[in-house]
C-alpha cells in the first residue's frame, strides 16, 4: 500500500506508452486501463482512515537531494476525492469517446493527462507539483488544437499562454519560499510538509508570496478578469476535452488555494479575503448574466461554469470548515454535473452538427431518454435540493455567511439566475413544437451513451441525498489544514478573526446539515 499512489500516477503513463504499439480497439484498451485505475482509487478510498490527522499513503525519496527536491506524494481528505474524480471522469470519457480520426493519438494524450491530473492532487513536493501542473497544459493544448473545431488553434494557444504565464509567476513565489526556508533553517527543501512547519512568515512577505501564487492559481480557476480563455477553450474543444477541462482541470486552481495559499499565508488570506470575495461575486453574477444571453448551448454551460467556480471561491475564502468543506464538495459536484452537461451537448452535436439553441425545439418527442437525463443534470446545475449540486452550493454560502451576509445573499440570489437560464435553455430545446425537419429522425441515446451517462445521474442523486459519505473525510482534511493555518498566523487581529469565523455554533450547523443529508 505504501506505493499505491505512485502506481496510480504512473500506471496511465505506462498504459499510454504500450498504446503506441496497439493498432486496433484503442477505446476498449483505454476503458480497461481506466477500470483498473478506478479500482485502485477505490482501494485507496477503502483503505483511507477518515479520522487520521495527517497525510496518508506518503511515499518519499530524494530526486535532487542537494537542492532539496524530492519525490513526495500523499493524500488527505481534501485530495482523496479529487483523485477519485479524475479517475472516474477519465473512465466515463473513454466510454463516451466517439472520435473517428487519430484515435490512437487521442487515447495516448488522455491517458497521459489522467496520470498528470492525479499527480497534481497527490504531489507534496512543490517542484514535483509544479512539474505535473505544467505538464497538464501539453495534452490539453494538443487535444484542443488537433481535435477541436472552428478557431481551435487560437483557442488552444490562448489557453496555453494564459495558464503558462500565470504559472511562471507562481514558480517565482515557490523558489523564493524555498530560499526563505533555507535562510531561516539552513536547509534547502521544497517539501510542503516541511514548509507547513515554518513558524513565522512575516506579514509583508506573505502578501507578496500570496500574490505570486494567486497569479498562477486564479488563471486556472479561472477568476475574473483572467477568465477570457475559458469560453474559447470550451467552445472549440472536442467533447472529451470540454468534459475533462470542466470536470477536473479547473479544480486544480481552487485546490491550490486550499492546499497552499490558506495554510502557508494565513495573514495574507485574511487581508485579501474581501477583494477575492468581490471578484468571486462578480464571477457569480457576470457568469450567470452572460450565460443567459448565449445562443450556443455549449457557451451557456461554459459561462455557467464561471459562475459556479465563483461560488466555490467564496466557499474557499470563508476560512471555516463549513465553507471550505462545502467548496471541496462543490468541486466534485460541479465536476460531475458540468462533465455530464458537456457530454450531453456533445451527443446532440454529433447528430446535428450544431449547438445553436434556435436549431432545436420539441426534442422530448424524439429523444425522451436524452431529455430526461438532461433535465436531471439541468436541475442539479441549478442547485435543486436532493441533488449533488445543492449541497456544495449551500455549504459554501453558509460558510461565508459568517463573514458577510450581504455577499452571501447576493451570491445566493444570483444563483436563481442560474435556474432561469438553465430552464430557458431546456424549454427552448426540449419543449414546443418539433418544427425543424432535420430533428424529426434524431435517434435517442444509444447503449454506449447510456452507459456513460447513467452512472453520473445515479451519483448526482445519491450524493444529493446522502453527502455524509464524502463530507466526513473532507471535513477532517479541512480541519487539519485550518489548524496549520491557525498555528502560523502572525497578526493577533487575524488570529482573532479566524477564530471568530470558525466558532462552535457554525460547526453545529455543519453537523445538522450532514445529518439532514443522511436521513
From TrEMBL:
Name of a matching Pfam family: Proton_antipo_M
UniProt keyword 4Fe-4S present: no
Places the protein is found: Endomembrane system; Membrane
GO molecular function, one term: ubiquinone binding
Keywords: Membrane, Oxidoreductase, Transmembrane, Transmembrane helix
InterPro entries: NADH_Q_OxRdtase_chainM/4, NADH_UbQ_OxRdtase, ND/Mrp_TM
Domain NADH:quinone oxidoreductase/Mrp antiporter transmembrane: 123-411
GO cellular component, one term: membrane
Major subcellular location class: membrane
Any Gene Ontology biological process: electron transport coupled proton transport
EC number: 1.6.5.11
Transmembrane region(s): 29-48, 79-98, 110-133, 179-196, 208-230, 237-258, 270-293, 300-321, 327-349, 370-391, 397-423, 450-467
Leading EC class: oxidoreductase
Membrane association type: Multi-pass membrane protein
Family per similarity comment: Belongs to the complex I subunit 4 family.
Protein name: NADH-quinone oxidoreductase subunit M
Provenance organism: Helicobacter apodemus
Organism lineage: Bacteria, Pseudomonadati, Campylobacterota, Epsilonproteobacteria, Campylobacterales
